[in-house]
Amino acid sequence: MDEQFAVSISGDEIVFWCLPDAKRAKSFKVTDATIAIAVSPDGQWIAVSHKPDANKLKKDPRYKKNKKSLKIDSKFKERVSVFDTENFKLKYTVDGLYHTVYKIDFSKNGEFIFVQHIPHGRAKSATSFMEAYVSLADAKTGEALRTKVLWRAPMPSHSLS
Asked: What's the pTM value of the predicted model, to 2 decimals?
């Protein structure tokens, strides 16, 4: 933020800590939060990864005829929501679903959100490679952009030689 606070996530709770004394300043909860958070460069917004709300997904017309996808996406996908750091009001939820989100970051100018996500072990397309994606979202509107980068690396060998 402005080097006055550190931010942590534990379970559903996001906590802002005063620096340098590490006293708890404020906190809020995000239902089904996962492991990734990021604060915008101006300190005004915080992005948090979380599991999608299954009831909201059910209302999405894309799942009307595809119940199997609904079940898989509810179980293995994640979303990213952005909140105001002062009052914790939801600004938006990015309109995309992601694999397991490991890292979120804002661009230095605050225009984009980078989402690094890795497919769940049961949802991977390649078995001999580790896959990771970095997707972009518009930080002002929450629109998931079509820009995505795929990274693949050979799986490490766990055999004894």
From this structure: 0.85
Phi (first) and psi of residue 130, to 5 degrees: -85, 130
Q: What is the mean pLDDT of each run of 10 residues along the chain (161 residues)?
A: 83 94 94 96 96 87 82 90 97 92 94 90 59 90 85 53 45
Q: What are the backbone dihedrals phi and psi of residue 57, each rounded to the nearest 5 degrees, phi first?
A: -65, -40
Residues 6+ apart with CB under 8 A from 93: 79, 80, 81, 82, 142
- Paired tokens of 92: 């938006």
Q: Which domains does the chain have, with CATH numbers?
A: 5-154 (2.130.10.10)
Residue among 34, 7, 152, 155 nearest 101 (CA) = 34
Residues 6+ apart with CB under 8 A from 32: 12, 50, 51, 53
Cα 2 from Cα 26, distance rounded (Å): 16
Burial 105-136 (b: 16+ CB within 10 A, else e): bbeeeeebbbbbbbbeeeeeeeeeeebbeebb
